[in-house]
Amino acid sequence: MSRWLLILAAVMVIGCSSQGGSTAVPSASPEPSASPEPTASLEPSATAEAPISVVGDSETGASDSFELAGGSYEVAWTMTADTAGCYLALAFRPRIDGPSIMNHVKLLPEAKPYSGTFLWLTAQPGTYVLQQDRSGSGRCIGPWSATITRR
């Protein structure tokens, strides 16, 4: 009986080694692919969005309304600080004096022109205004402008 077990074991070992131990299933040879059709287009894609330039109203500190498709945006701003040590506070809002969706606050140490950038990474599609928060002490009230660019 042990002789038959040895023969069976030998057959199993030989059978495994002749298959190389691979469990891969052979695949059919690929068919030649057709050459792709040219798809050159000079029109911007549906997700392209032109930069939006806005200025703050001298009375309300708010821009006109604008549409955002949603996603990530870089905001490049300029402002002339009206007093030394004031804070520029810009807020994205759905309307003038509406709830603040996203805020950017920056200390401007001298009464002079400044510029800077900030990112808004989670903008939802919608209509917005960019409004300078003038409430509270220490807020800058000088003129400002911004360009909003999708990233």
Description of the molecule:
By secondary structure, this protein is mainly beta. It has a domain at 52-150: Jelly Rolls (Sandwich), CATH 2.60.120. Helices cover 11% and strands 38% of the residues. The protein has one helix at residues 2-18, and strands at residues 52-55, 66-68, 71-80, 86-93, 102-108, 113-123, 126-132, 144-150. A four-stranded antiparallel sheet has the order 1-8-3-6, with no helix packed on it. It has a four-stranded antiparallel sheet with strand order 2-7-4-5, with no helix packed on it. Strand 4 and strand 5 (102-108) form a beta hairpin. It is globular, with a radius of gyration of 33 Å. The chain starts with a helix and ends with a strand. Mean pLDDT is 79; it is low at 1-46.
Range of helix content: 10-25%
The low-pLDDT segments are: 1-46
Q: Which class of secondary structure composition applies to the elements?
A: mainly beta
Assigned CATH architecture of one domain: Sandwich
Number of strands: 8
Shape: globular
What is the CATH class name of one domain?
Mainly Beta
